């Protein structure tokens, strides 16, 4: 399968000598939701801007929908819809006119039915005749997404799409993104809301200091790098971890009523069984136990700070 986005040995160095991207290699395939995660200044926006033709690369090869972003700029750009971080709307225009005009910028003939569908999918239909300046921040964000979808791109970049959006609107946008993927659109998402990536993404890419340090299927990533935690709620308080347990990764809670055992999610359960046998041999009773797995946020923080 030919990737919708192909990036090979991409570098970007600014005039002041700062290298924003270092030998980036990345392929994103049709119909997938790809989440690009990284701390501020990691290079996420620079990478997106180069693919979208906004920032010039220093060297390397980049293709969108099979078109080289330099040699076939127009065709490559026509295949892309971009929702940037910054709110940048035509304040005095109506929603309908702004979205329709955006379609015309790509040389597409008028298609009122498509514009109507986009506005309804984004819950903007009732606002179609409102001036954009009168809308809330969340609604303005939706208008930007509508403009990006106006020319029916096969690839959609969402750079922090839910920044400043309330929880209800955020979940509506998640549903919209899933619908786009179902219709065959490739979605590339950058976000600071890690639960957003955990909820929606098929694959995760992590960028740090201008380098891609990991690209992995989300489920496999959480399995490989995640931790599991077993919490035992004790019948009686302990003053310290018994000496027989010091070889295990066991901690005692501050109040002395919980033992916390942490282990790799890929590790066999032998360690848990051994722990429980040892507690039984020591006569330490527990009234309840709970297990939990690492969230994507915890894995991401660990990757970035390692």
From TrEMBL:
ABC transporter domain span: 5-234
SMART domains in the cross-refs: AAA
InterPro entries for the chain: AAA+_ATPase (IPR003593), ABC_transporter-like_ATP-bd (IPR003439), ABC_transporter-like_CS (IPR017871), ABC_transporter_ATP-binding (IPR050763), P-loop_NTPase (IPR027417)
One of the record's GO molecular function terms: ATP hydrolysis activity
Entry keyword Transport: yes
Keyword line: ATP-binding, Nucleotide-binding, Transport
Descriptive protein name: Multidrug ABC transporter ATP-binding protein
Organism: Marinobacter halophilus
């Amino acid at each position: 399968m030919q990737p919708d986005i192909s990036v090979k040995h991409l570098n970007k160095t600014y005039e002041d000598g700062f290298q924003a991207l270092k030998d980036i290699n990345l392929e994103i395939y049709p119909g997938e939701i790809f989440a690009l995660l990284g701390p501020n200044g990691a290079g996420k926006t620079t990478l997106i801007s180069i693919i979208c033709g906004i920032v010039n690369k220093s060297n390397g090869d980049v293709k969108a929908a099979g078109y080289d972003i330099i040699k076939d700029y127009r065709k490559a750009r026509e295949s892309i819809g971009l929702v940037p971080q910054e709110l940048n709307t035509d304040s005095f225009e109506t929603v309908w006119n702004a979205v329709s005009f955006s379609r015309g910028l790509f040389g597409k003939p008028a298609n009122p039915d498509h514009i109507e569908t986009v506005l309804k999918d984004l819950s903007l239909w009732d606002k179609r005749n409102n001036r954009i300046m009168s809308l809330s921040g969340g609604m303005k964000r939706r208008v930007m997404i509508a403009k990006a979808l106006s020319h029916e791109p096969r690839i959609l970049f969402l750079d922090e799409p839910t920044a400043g959006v309330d929880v209800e609107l955020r979940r509506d946008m998640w549903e919209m993104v899933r619908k786009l993927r179902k219709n065959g659109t490739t979605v590339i998402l950058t976000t600071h809301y890690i639960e957003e990536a955990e909820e929606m993404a098929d694959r995760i890419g992590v960028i740090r200091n201008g380098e891609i340090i990991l690209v992995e299927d989300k489920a496999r990533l959480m399995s490989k790098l995640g931790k599991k935690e077993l919490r035992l709620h004790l019948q009686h308080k302990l003053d310290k971890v018994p000496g027989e347990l010091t070889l295990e990764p066991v901690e005692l809670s501050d109040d002395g009523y919980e033992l916390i055992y942490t282990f790799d999610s890929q590790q066999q359960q032998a360690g848990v069984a051994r722990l429980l046998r040892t507690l039984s041999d020591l006569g330490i009773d527990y009234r309840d136990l709970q297990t939990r797995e690492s969230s994507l946020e915890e894995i991401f923080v660990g990757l970035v700070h390692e």
